[in-house]
């Protein structure tokens, strides 16, 4: 009755009236909002990990049974949730993403030749989508120059025997102001599936915390944008300056029936202290590594933390300094791991944020901490692929390493399983970046037959420093 009253009140513009009539239909039948997505369509799907994913729209695609999709998304979530469900039902033919994440089915299908995968550096992926929405056909970027991205040959599709059936093509290179850049073509889609927090009845949309992530650039890069929200409010409930996506870009709108909102990697602080629970073998070693690496922070520094050991740094920053931690999903001002009652699914992996935090895309970082599979004596870094065996994806590392102004600190266990060398004369794995690493921190203070290249001992050698427990 309230809806009918609104429709007949004359308070809605013609465009808002059309959207609201569609909303009434789609709210009742979510499948209606995606039923015209045809086999072979290109679909942009928002979210970062499990944060900010369009759960209900993905569920609707499962019901339509559409096949042969090209899915453009930062990653494919996990095996049994998010896009992982569409992979498991064999509805996706090609993924364009930056990271495989914890999705074993994604990796299996890719390595077995069932799935085409175009792995793209995270910042490049975001810009390819943003520029596509702006009508720009291509752009030049530093990211990826001198490695497999520029040279070509990265596997897109494997044969069943593991050999490469289709590989990426070399990128065009141009020099600007003494630096080399590679040409990247933009991405557009037939449909964008976007998850937001709230919408008003006119179709204006706002996001919550870091759940805006890849959702934000996608609404402009598709022919048809379908948005699902948790709540729909009256027109005028939002201040105009608070609206993130205006109604002109929203073609269809649904209110999600229910949300599971899983948290992908939840680490909880113990009550009464600042450290995360340690339950995995090797946690003591990792803690020792990161406590030493944390001494590289300086007061007022802006720093980015990679996944794994580097992310532990947020728990060991000296209380006598301020370090602004930035996350690749668009958070500036990360705090320590949350306590149980602080966990928030709209913050990637339920991290906490400090007073003064903000949500935006990354940039202007003084220091970045990353993990590594291999390092060379020249400072080359490899951390995204073991050809034919394991694929993590490029993530945001290539973008971070492309800035000469950013100090790069690698934190890792000194040797791989079986005591295989990780610090080598020359990397044998595909590189993430060339001559980009400034410092390596491992658990060892003395190397003895566990480093695959010559090294010099500093005359200022001293016992390993670390902050007090």
From TrEMBL:
E.C. no: 2.8.3.5
Q: What is its main location?
A: mitochondrion
Q: Which reaction does it catalyse?
A: a 3-oxo acid + succinyl-CoA = a 3-oxoacyl-CoA + succinate
Where is this chain's protein located in or outside the cell?
Mitochondrion
Keyword terms = Mitochondrion, Signal, Transferase, Transit peptide
Tell me the route in metabolism or biology where this protein functions: Ketone metabolism; succinyl-CoA degradation; acetoacetyl-CoA from succinyl-CoA: step 1/1
Q: Name one GO cellular component term.
A: mitochondrion
Signal peptide residues are 1-33
Gene3D superfamilies documented for this protein: Glutaconate Coenzyme A-transferase
Query: What role does it play?
Result: Key enzyme for ketone body catabolism. Transfers the CoA moiety from succinate to acetoacetate. Formation of the enzyme-CoA intermediate proceeds via an unstable anhydride species formed between the carboxylate groups of the enzyme and substrate.
| Protein name, as recorded | Succinyl-CoA:3-ketoacid-coenzyme A transferase
This chain's source organism reads Aotus nancymaae
């Amino acid at each position: 009755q309230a809806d009918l009253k609104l429709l007949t009140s004359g308070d809605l513009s013609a465009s808002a009236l059309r959207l609201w009539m569609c909303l009434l239909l789609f709210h009742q039948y979510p499948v209606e909002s995606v039923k015209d997505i045809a086999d072979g369509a290109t679909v942009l799907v928002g979210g970062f990990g499990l944060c900010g994913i369009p759960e209900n729209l993905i569920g609707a695609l499962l019901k339509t049974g559409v096949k042969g999709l090209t899915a453009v998304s930062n990653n494919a979530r996990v095996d049994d949730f998010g896009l992982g469900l569409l992979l498991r039902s064999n509805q996706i033919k090609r993924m364009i993403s930056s990271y495989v994440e914890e999705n074993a089915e994604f990796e299996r299908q890719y390595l077995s030749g069932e799935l085409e995968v175009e792995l793209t550096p995270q910042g490049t992926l975001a810009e390819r989508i943003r520029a596509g929405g702006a009508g720009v056909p291509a752009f030049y970027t530093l990211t990826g120059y001198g490695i497999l991205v520029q040279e070509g040959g990265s596997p897109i599709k494997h044969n069943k025997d593991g050999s490469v059936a289709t590989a990426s093509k070399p990128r065009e290179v141009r020099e600007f102001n003494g630096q080399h850049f590679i040409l990247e073509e933009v991405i557009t889609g037939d449909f964008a599936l976007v998850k937001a927090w709230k919408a008003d009845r006119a179709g204006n949309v706002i996001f919550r915390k870091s759940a805006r992530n890849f959702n934000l650039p996608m609404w402009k890069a598709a022919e048809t944008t379908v948005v699902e929200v948790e709540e729909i409010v009256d027109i005028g409930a939002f201040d105009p300056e608070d609206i993130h996506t205006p109604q002109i870009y929203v073609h269809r709108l649904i209110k999600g029936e229910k949300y599971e909102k899983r948290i992908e990697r939840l680490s909880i602080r113990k009550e009464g202290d600042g450290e995360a629970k340690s339950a995995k073998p090797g946690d003591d070693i990792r803690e020792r590594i990161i406590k030493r690496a944390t001494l590289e922070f300086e007061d007022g520094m802006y720093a980015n933390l990679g996944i794994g050991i580097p992310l532990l740094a947020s728990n060991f920053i000296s209380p006598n300094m301020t370090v602004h931690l930035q996350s690749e999903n668009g958070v500036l001002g990360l705090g320590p791991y949350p306590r149980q009652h602080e966990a928030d699914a709209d913050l990637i992996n339920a991290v906490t944020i400090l007073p003064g935090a903000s949500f935006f895309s990354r940039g202007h970082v003084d220091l970045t901490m990353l993990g590594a599979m291999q390092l060379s004596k020249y400072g080359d870094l490899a951390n995204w692929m073991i050809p034919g065996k394991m694929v993590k994806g490029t993530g945001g590392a290539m973008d971070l390493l492309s800035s000469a102004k950013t100090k790069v600190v690698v934190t890792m266990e000194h040797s791989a399983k079986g005591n295989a060398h990780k610090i080598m004369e020359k990397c044998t794995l595909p590189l993430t970046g060339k001559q980009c690493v400034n410092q390596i921190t491992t658990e060892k203070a003395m190397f003895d037959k566990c480093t695959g290249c010559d090294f010099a001992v500093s005359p200022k050698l001293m016992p390993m420093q670390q902050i007090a427990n």
